[in-house]
Amino acid sequence: METEGELNLQELSRYKTVGVTAGASTPHWLIGNVVTTLKHDWAFRKGSLGESFFRTWRFFLKSNLCVALGAGSLSYTSSLLQEVEPLIEYFLVAFFYIYAMHLLNHFTDEACKLNDPVQTMFYGRHRRFLLITGATSALLALILGLVLGWVAFLFILGMSLVGLLYNLQIFPPGLSSLTRIVRLKEIPGSKSIFTALAWGVLAALIPVVSSDRDISAATFLAFCFVAGLVFIRSGLFEIQALEGDRVVGKETLAIALGKKKALHLLYALDVVLLFTLWGATYAGLLPSLGYGLLLCGFYALGYLSLYNCGYMESGLLLETLVEGNMLLAGLIAFLWDPFHRGF
Q1: Where does residue 181 rank: exposed (0-12), middle (13-18), buried (19+ CB within 10 A)?
Q2: What is the pLDDT of residues 76-88, one digit of tens each?
Q3: Under DSSP, is residue 183 helix (H, G, I), strand (E, B) or coil?
Q4: What is the pLDDT of residues 209-244, one digit of tens each?
Q5: Tens digits of residue pLDDT in 309-323
């Protein structure tokens, strides 16, 4: 099948323009994936340096290494917002946990197969490698949590249990018959909310409870910063996945509110995040790093606007821009780092 695909692409490469047609019932996301694949195959010739770069870039995104690195970056940033000395253990806990949970989510979420066929094929080709590294990462996150202390370990263990319960039937029949909700994942918007809360715990709470610092207003603000950025990220991806999620009956914020209202909510949250960062830093509740992190809020407004205007509806470039905001936060924090430790 792969050989046939390569032959077809070689045949198509003779033409400067190719049209893509589809029936009225064809999902928009499927058309977008076909167009994106064609664009990439035209841009990079087989065996070229550009193709090697593209494959590396795609592997970095689709393997969840990028999102895991973003989680570690937010942990680093959150430590500095609370003036906690950033330790490599904090970074690695966030990195390993998010890597493992994202892999688990993809393997157990039926909607992922519809929303991102490219990633589904990637997971199929590298299934054994991903399962082994995912299980190893989950174990390493728990071990590191235990090294940091019982409180950190219990936080990680608790989040892991919630993640496992997310797809299981936990509500009693009497209650579920009234609410029509049997599992946590059937609560509208639950995925974005739980994801944001989990990242907030990993990035903001674990560093402070593992250090000699007390939980303070800065902890709450760091938690809100991380959770806000992640909620905007997850919310936009849910808007992109609206059609596939609707097919499998998945309840998301985008389905509950509609695409337009959900996007407006993300805009509003980002504006609130910007004002909160500015106000808290001005009031002295956060260090001057808070001013630098305003750039992350404006960055999020930028990619939301690009998506809203139709310039980037799907594809690796939009995914890179969205995930890049977490890395941007880490870079700003690194430049500000008063401990002069880097990592």
Answers
A1: middle
A2: 999 999 999 999 9
A3: strand
A4: 998 888 899 999 999 999 999 999 988 888 877 766
A5: 877 766 778 888 999
Q: What are phi and psi of 16, to 5 degrees?
A: -85, -25
| Cβ(235)–Cβ(270) below 8 Å | no
pTM for the structure as a whole: 0.82
Give CA–CA dist 289/82, Å, rounded: 10
Residue 285 CA to residue 281 CA, distance in Å, equals: 6
Q: Say which DSSP state 169 is in.
A: B
Smallest CA-to-CA distance from 18 within 33, 35, 43, 1 is with 35
Is the pLDDT score of 277 beyond 80? yes
Task: Return all residues near 65 (Cβ < 8 A) that are at least 6 apart.
Answer: 59, 99
> Which stretches of the chain are assigned E, i.e. beta strand?
none
Cα 219 versus chain centre, distance: 22
CA distance 153 to 25: 48
- Residue-averaged pLDDT of the chain: 80
Q: Residue 193: which of 220, 225, 231, 242 has the closest Cα?
A: 231
Domain range summary for the chain, segments of one domain joined by +: 57-336
Measured between alpha carbons, how far is 313 from 306 in angstroms, rounded to an integer? Answer: 8
Residue 277, SS3? helix
Alpha helices in 44-126 (DSSP H): 49-62, 65-81, 88-108, 110-115, 117-125
Angstrom distance (rounded) from CA 29 to CA 241: 8
Closest CA to 202 of 335, 79, 341: 79
Q: Which residues pair with 183 in a beta bridge?
A: 169
Tokens of 150: 């019982």
